[in-house]
Amino acid sequence: MNQNKINILIGTLLVIFAAGLKVLTFPQSFNPIIAISLFSGVVISDKKMAFAMPLLAMFASDLLLEIFNIAPGFYGLAQIGNYVALLFVTILGFSMKKINTINVVGYSILSSLLFFLLSNTNCFLFDTITYEKSIGGWATCLAAGIPFVKNGLLADLCFSAILFSSYSVGMKFVSKKAMA
What we know:
This protein has helices at about 5-25, 35-45, 45-65, 75-95, 100-125, 135-145, 145-180. By secondary structure, it is mainly α. The protein has one domain (about 5-180): Orthogonal Bundle (Arp2/3 complex 21 kDa subunit ARPC3). The protein is globular. The mean pLDDT is about 90.
């Protein structure tokens, strides 16, 4: 099987896994979507595929939430900002030059905080009822998101550790097999 087919297979499995886990853990949303965004930016050389993986995972989970009437899967313009936030996390991943524990932990934390800041700012901008359009309203919106960022940070660290360590072990195995 060539590398492109392997990448597509891995990408498809990650998308299905992420979407399923987001739905199963709703509303806590202990899922790997942000970790997949970071991982894609670091590991996937095809930039279109790197951007597509987290977007497809998010879209599939939103679709499942809607179909099974668990929650509104599609909720308007604010949702588009969350998709854009995932793109920024993927772009952040492009800057990680070496996969090691310090980088994975640091970038994972930064990814969580970036997504938190962008998604809550997005919520503030598009929610015309809940938050007053002022610095105080923005601060209130950010404060309202703190419980979500705590859970998200834990999920992002766990899933980043799983994704990057699995990738590193897999690459070592492939490298040893190629040398044999």
